[in-house]
């Protein structure tokens, strides 16, 4: 297997994304665990920007944001403002905390989120950094594990995300 193009190591409690609740006002949907989800997504995004030496798309100030104007910092248009513009392959090994009372080798209790919810959080966090749109991911895999169990598990909660050019 070819070496990944990018390896992103993220420290912190992983949070899943997917359970939506409807707010008491205006019936607006929000993430049931946004208190945990937002900081986790920020850490994933920050780790990706750091490893790439990249920056967030910055719309020109004082301009109408509805106009498709290039990034104020680098002159790249939003539709091109990412590392990969073609197909992407992504694998994430998510290390979740093992409570002292848990003796099972694998995170199969309700204390962790579902693999697809972890996938959703990570894939959204990397949009506009690794790829322009997460529809570019043609091949994705998420593995949940406890510290030191899987080959790519961390020693503490977090994730190791490996990215390949999916068209290669
Ligand atoms: Zn830019």
Automatic annotation (TrEMBL):
<dbReference type="GO" id="GO:0006281">
    <property type="term" value="P:DNA repair"/>
</dbReference>
<dbReference type="Pfam" id="PF05866">
    <property type="entry name" value="RusA"/>
</dbReference>
<protein>
    <submittedName>
        <fullName>Uncharacterized protein</fullName>
    </submittedName>
</protein>
<dbReference type="InterPro" id="IPR008822">
    <property type="entry name" value="Endonuclease_RusA-like"/>
</dbReference>
<dbReference type="GO" id="GO:0006310">
    <property type="term" value="P:DNA recombination"/>
</dbReference>
<dbReference type="InterPro" id="IPR036614">
    <property type="entry name" value="RusA-like_sf"/>
</dbReference>
<dbReference type="GO" id="GO:0000287">
    <property type="term" value="F:magnesium ion binding"/>
</dbReference>
